[in-house]
Amino acid sequence: MAAVKKDDVVSMFDSFKEFKETKNIDRTTLVSVLEESFRNVLAKIFGSDENFDVIVNPDKGDFEIYRNRVVVADGEVEDENKQVSLTEARKIEPDYEVGEDVSERVDFAKFGRRAILNLRQTLASKILELEHDSLYNKYKDRVGQVIAAEVYQVWKREVLVVDDENNELILPKAEQIPADVYRKGETIRAVIERVDNENNNPKIILSRTSPMFLQRLLEAEVPEIAEGLIAIRRIARIPGERAKIAVESFDDRIDPVGACVGVKGSRVHGIVRELCNENIDVICYTGNTKLFIQRALSPAKVSSIKIDEENKKAEVYLKPEEVSLAIGRSGLNIKLASLLTEYTIDVFREVSEEDADEDIYLDEFADEIDQWVIDAIKGIGLDTAKAVLNAPRDMLVEKADLEEETVDNVLKVLRAEFE
């Protein structure tokens, strides 16, 4: 029997064929989805699709539908969908008898425009489900991998990019390096941060600020890491500004820092450019907490360290000229060192015994400094004038939660006492 072709559904087959080729959907799945779409419509029209045979040929864009019914005596039809009277059956074939099965081709076009519209909507919904499944299955096991994708649309809160199969991926504002500039059509690299799949609506979230992105870039540039001779132990980043990386070598003949940096910085130059000139410090990892903190504060030279392992705190003492190096511009160095070592680091200037003997308790300045300010400073462990003067200004602002103007006034009063 010749297959029935309908102009109203040919376009659906064409779009489905294109989707199949683009998403690499196997033929079995394709036929199953098309058949299920027809059956959903038939069930809505007749109340059941159990007695229908649906044959689809997606390659040619045609289909056949047959309804199977049982012949019953005239006047005994109880279900017109599954039964046919003897008289009606003999109009199809004159030799039908009661009890026999009748298979009759159904002309889908006779169901009207509403049925065809219903089929379109059902098929569109199935395609969308397949697209979601295809996207989720492609990326669910790729979290932590770097991907190159093309910028498709730039919005205020996120950038929409597309991969080589035209799947949409999202780079949120919070995952962008502050200095990044995106232009439609350009290719960017990012790490796959996570794959959300709420209500079967997958969202692939990318990141350029994640420490994992820096790690993957470094792994690609340093063969010794890929070979397992060097391991990346810790990474701390302030995206677009500065990063610290702790590495360890499993071969005594290999200098892990030198291998990661490369001759004249050759191995990190490309990474620095990729990260909008983010400065990268590489240090040797060690299980010795004091030594690790000391290395993390590089380039500052530490005089001594007091460790509080229970509270993960460290008091670091340095010569006055080393303090600014330990803190770094805008406090970046000490902040990164704390992130890298996972210790709260407080920096102090070394005070000689002679200076300590001449010290004055803060409470004696109550006539010049408000008591609440004195209490705030004492609350961070600084009880004397010399202790405050030897503490970094930024630390007083942040730890004591004071305004910069207030801190400057306190320092002015204390300095005047010793001038």
TrEMBL record:
Gene3D superfamilies: 3.30.300.20, Nucleic acid-binding proteins, NusA, N-terminal domain. It comes from the Bacteria. It holds the Pfam family S1. Keywords: Cytoplasm, RNA-binding, Transcription, Transcription antitermination, Transcription regulation, Transcription termination. The keyword Transcription regulation applies. One of its GO terms (biological process) is transcription antitermination. GO terms for molecular function: DNA-binding transcription factor activity; RNA binding. The keyword Cytoplasm applies. Belongs to the NusA family. Monomer. Binds directly to the core enzyme of the DNA-dependent RNA polymerase and to nascent RNA. HAMAP family: NusA_B. Participates in both transcription termination and antitermination. This is Transcription termination/antitermination protein NusA. It comes from Leyella stercorea. The lineage of its organism: Bacteria, Pseudomonadati, Bacteroidota, Bacteroidia, Bacteroidales.
